[in-house]
Amino acid sequence: MPSRHKKRQKDIPGRSLKKPLGVIVGASLLIWLLFFDSHSLVSRIQWYQEYKSLEVQNAHLQYEIDLLEAELARGLSDEAVERIAREEFGMRRDNETVYPVINDDD
User: Fold this and answer.
1) H or E element, residue 29
2) What is the pLDDT tens value at each position of the chain, 106 positions in all?
3) Which of 10, 34, 94, 103 is 20 to 30 A from 1 via CA?
4) Which residues contact 76 (CB under 8 A, 6 or more apart)?
């Protein structure tokens, strides 16, 4: 029987470069995805922190909305209506002179 000699993998040209090249390409891809991609791990961490911050802000604003809705449900007194009209809309009574006060907090 003729003996068949199989080429060992060491003897195949270019085989010695495939494994290190694959490791380099894989490591480069991993570094790219972790740090430089538009959806990188760093970006995702920043987005998560911003999300948590916005959740806290949303809860605070919801609390303020609930307070304002409760105030509206009670109804506004005449004094409150007059105060709002004067402060926010600059309304005044007849024959009344209003002097605006400007604070210089510089």
Assistant:
1) helix 15-31
2) 555 655 555 555 656 777 888 888 889 988 888 888 888 888 899 999 999 999 999 999 999 999 989 988 888 788 888 888 888 888 888 888 877 788 887 6
3) 10
4) 84
> Percentage helix, strand, coil, to 5, in the chain?
65, 0, 35
**CA gap 102, 46 in Å, rounded:** 41
| Token pair belonging to 8 | 């060992």
Residues 40, 33: contact at Cβ < 8 Å? yes
Q: Is the full-model pTM beyond 0.85?
A: no
Judge contact between 86 and 80, C-beta under 8 A. Answer: no
User: What does the alpha-carbon distance between residue 92 and residue 75 come to, in Å, rounded to a whole number?
Assistant: 22
Cα–Cα distance between 93 and 76 in angstroms, integer?
A: 19
